[in-house]
Each structure stands twice: as C-alpha cells, then as structure tokens.
Design goal:
- The protein is α+β, with helices and mostly antiparallel strands.
- The chain is built from six helices and ten strands.
- The chain has one domain: Phenylalanyl-trna Synthetase, Chain B, domain 3 (Phenylalanyl-tRNA Synthetase, Chain B, domain 3, 3-Layer(bba) Sandwich).
- It is globular and about 40 Å long.
- The N and C termini lie close together (4 Å).
- It comes from Brevibacillus fluminis.
C-alpha cells in the first residue's frame, strides 16, 4: 500500500493549506478526439481574465499569494507557481496546447479556477509519496532535461523513495513520474493556500474528478488533506 503523507515540516510553514487529491484508477488516457481537449482549454483560457484584473501581473491575488508562499522556503531562482506560468502564457497571447487528456483536463481546471493543479503516474511511484522539505540530495530529472537537478536543502517538494517528483512545491515535475498516454492510474492534486477560496477549491476538485470520469472512464476518488483533519491517505496498491 502506497500512502500520500504531508509531513510536519510542511505544515509548520503552511498551517492553513489544503491539498485536494483525485485518485484515478483504471483510466484510458490514450489520445483520441483531440478537438475535445483543444476546446476545453480554449474555453478555460477565456475565463482567465477574471484573475488578471490588475494591470501589474504579479499583484493579482491568485499570483501574489503564491509569490508570498514561495518566499517561505528556498527556491531555484525564477521558480514560480504553476498557475502563474499558465496565466502568464495566456496573458501573452500564447495558447495552452494539448499534451494528453489528463494533463489537458487538469490544465483547464487550473485556468478556470486560478489554482495550481498537477498530476503523476501512480505506477511509477517508489514507496510512499511525501510533501515535505527536501534533504537536498534527492535525484530529480526535470521534464525535457537530460541532467539531474536535485532540489535545495529545505525546498518544499513532493518526493518518493526514489527521489523528488515535483520541485519548488508545484513548479516543475519529474520526467520519471509524468503522465503519459499509457497512464492507467493517476494521482492528481489541487493546492490551496488562500482560505477565502475554499468553496472554489472544492468546486474545482469535483469538476476535475467529473471530467476525468466522463472522458477517461475508470474510478475516481476525492480526498482533502489539511493540518487538522487528515495528514496522510492511502493511495492504493
């Protein structure tokens, strides 16, 4: 049985955070009907203007709150929350292209709700998954790279027994655990640090689960972890 564990080192920095998970089993993530996912992303892009009402990009609340969060731990220079990267591309007139159904679905949810979303292939995990501070010697091969780029000591990361899975909390994912057309079982998550947006957070989780179930089949299960109610969960195995 693999578990997802959020360690005290994380909660000490972000006591009010919520991590929403959608565990997907037996899905079909093969690429078919690309037009469906192109439309999903295009419609989501149209909704992003509501998060960019302020002229100064970094001052918009959905971006500013994560800029503040990233100052609480050591990060690689220039590292930004995934939602900032998505919104910046749209603001600059660059469409979010399709990758594979799962990634397209969670990117569309991220854009629609202004929340960081991510996903990994469960079948690539080695041991338990932890959201914690890095030791600094974890192996990490970033998407698209050929050289190891270990996290800094004290950096917030997702990791398993093999190495880091996502650096700087939600900045950059590992090639080893990425979602592919062959993914059958997936770990998806949405992260919240702005307590005032709890309702939107839960709506985003439900819509994410519903879209996966509708388009990719299989079974989905939603669970929310926070400091007071739940610090770990069984993924499956």
């Amino acid at each position: 049985m693999s578990k997802f564990i959020i360690e005290d080192e994380f909660w000490s920095l972000f006591p009010h955070a919520k991590i929403g998970t959608v565990i997907c089993q037996g899905i079909d993530n093969s690429i078919r009907d690309v037009e469906i996912y192109e439309k999903l992303l295009q419609e989501a892009e149209k909704e992003t203007h509501k998060f960019l009402s302020l002229e100064e990009f970094s001052s918009n609340p959905v971006i500013f709150v994560w800029r503040e969060a990233f100052q609480k731990f050591k990060t690689k220079k220039g590292a930004r929350c995934s939602i900032e990267a998505l919104l910046k591309r749209v603001k600059n007139g660059n469409h979010i292209g399709t990758i594979n159904p799962l990634v397209d679905i969670y990117n569309s949810i991220s854009l629609r709700y202004g929340l960081p979303c991510g996903g990994e292939d469960i079948d690539t995990f080695v041991g338990d998954i932890r959201l914690t501070k890095a030791i600094g010697n974890e192996s990490f091969l970033p998407l698209g790279d050929v050289e190891n780029a270990s996290p800094y000591e004290g950096e917030i990361v997702y990791k398993d027994d093999e190495g880091a899975i996502c650096r700087c909390w939600n900045w950059r994912e590992a090639q080893r655990t990425m979602l592919t057309e062959n993914t059958k079982n997936a770990f998806l998550c949405i992260e919240l640090i702005d307590e005032t947006r709890s309702d939107e957070f839960h709506m985003a989780l439900k819509e994410l689960a519903d879209l996966v179930s509708h388009h990719l089949g299989g079974t989905v299960k939603i669970e929310v972890l926070d400091r007071n109610n739940n610090r770990e969960m069984t993924i499956f195995g």
